[in-house]
Amino acid sequence: VTLSPYRLRVDGQEHRVVDGRLGDSLLRVLRDRLGVTAVKEGCATGDCGTCAVLVDGTLVNGCLVLAAAAAGREVTTASGLSHDGGATDVQRAFAEAGAVQCGFCAPGLVLAAHELLTRTPAPGDAQIREALSGNRCACAGFERVVEAVRRVAAGRSS
Amino acid sequence: MATPHTLDEAVAALEAHPAALLLGGGTDLMPALNSGRLRPGSVVALRAVRELAGWHGDDLGVWLGAGLTFTQLQQPSLAALLPALARAAGAAGPPAVRNAATLGGNLGTAARRGDILPVLVALDAVVLLHGSGGPRKVPAGRFVLEPGRTALRPGELIAAAWVPAARGPQEFCAVRRESGRSLVSVALAVDLDTRRVRCAVGAARPVPVRATAAEAFLAGRVDWPAGRVADAAAYEEFGRLVATVAGSPPYARHAVAVCARRLLARALPAGPA
């Protein structure tokens, strides 16, 4: 079923989706129609977190969002976290702590970390692990990811 | 695709498109769409329906809108009233999933291994439905007929769940498979005023079941004013009796017995106050 055109607002930019299909996920439309590659396709079942996005500030998996249902809402990817296009403190900390190996999971992890630190400025390790529990990293770099989040929290409070 | 803003608009949209798929948080529906298992002709998205949002409690009980997310079920103010439900919601997946998954969606999907319904059954909750014929109530224990099939009639949708007020501990425990889905779950609710313990077992059978023999066994073994169990041997027997409703395999029965024993010991400690 083809939909009438609808608008998606992604990282502050308005897009018009023409000839969208009803069943398409936000992940599919972002990547295949709008060329937004900061969201990755891992499992498409909500288990890996590589397609994480913020929708109106709430962390969700793009593969579990019906694209047409996101019309009129604010979608944010890891590319849209900074207003000037540069790296945020979270992104810098990931790089500096060695939390990125192949990088496939990094945008999702960065978003999950960003969302946690917005909600909980000084999280304990248990809160960090819980907040990142939906993001799989096959390179197994979790210790450095946790360390990166700790550094951001410390940096923001000093 | 329809995006109704009121319950009446949602019912009208369902009437106009009887085969439409209902979209709650998408956590169950989207994997089916992504894999091509389902190809929707039309979708009614329920997120914007005002009457499905939020919750409120009074002396009689707690009303839970079907649109509540699992994250909202975990909020401290609601978790204080319904701790077992908060616990079940909190264990149902990672944050990004719980931010999307809804109470109504979970009930409507009617998955055998869903963790919400066993808690509602133990709490003696009612599922509130709405359709063109008006509102209708179904006890939580009779809402799911078999996995994937509910008491919903064509054109009806889940509006809310209502949990009657009860003073006393509420507990939930699940033993999970590697997939994260429950092998078995046990929910337990104590009502110190009516002097009853209600216990439901989930996932072990196609639909949640109440452990009525185990509940009856406790009747003469609880010091109700103190909220304690006089003889600690009762925990073992309670667990054994709860496990009799669990079916096979034996390890699932064992897991149910252990969960039930621990939950009861937590809810009603042993010995004099």
What does the model show?
- The complex is a heterodimer of chains A (158) and B (273).
- Chain A is built from 5 helices and 5 strands.
- Chain A has 158 residues and is of the alpha+beta class.
- The mean pLDDT of chain A is 95.
- Chain B is of the alpha+beta class.
- Helix content of chain B is 32%, strand content 25%.
- Chain B contains 11 helices and 15 strands.
- In chain B, strands 3-4-9-5-6 form a 5-stranded antiparallel beta sheet. Chain B has a 4-stranded antiparallel beta sheet with strand order 10-11-12-13, with helices on both faces. In chain B, strands 1-2 form a two-stranded parallel sheet.
- In chain B, strand 14 and strand 15 form a beta hairpin.
- In chain B, helix 9 packs antiparallel against helix 10 (233-243) and helix 10 (233-243) crosses helix 11 (250-267).
- The model of chain B has no long low-confidence stretch (mean pLDDT 96).
- The interface between A and B is medium-sized, with 28 and 27 residues.
Beta content of chain A comes to 5-15%
**Share of helix among residues of chain B?**
25-40%
- Output the radius of gyration of chain A: 16 Å
Name the biggest interface.
Answer: A-B, 28 and 27 residues
Calculate the terminal CA-CA distance of chain B, rounded to whole Å: 59 Å
Largest beta-sheet characterization of chain A: 5 strands, mixed
Question: Please, how many helices of chain A?
Answer: 5
Radius of gyration of chain B using CA atoms only? 19 Å
Structural class label of chain A: alpha+beta
Order of helices and strands of chain A: EEHEEEHHHH
What fraction of the residues of chain B are assigned to beta strands by DSSP?
A: 25-35%
Unreliable runs of chain A, pLDDT <50, ≥5 residues?
A: none
Question: What number is the mean pLDDT of chain A?
Answer: 95
The order of strands across the largest sheet of chain B is 3-4-9-5-6
Strand order of the largest sheet of chain A: 2-1-5-3-4
Order of helices and strands of chain B: HEHEEEHHHHHHEEEEEEEEEHEEHH
Overall geometry of chain B comes to globular
Main sheet overview of chain B: 5 strands, antiparallel
Assembly category:
heterodimer
Low-confidence segments of chain B, given as residue ranges, are: none
Overall helicity of chain A: 25-40%
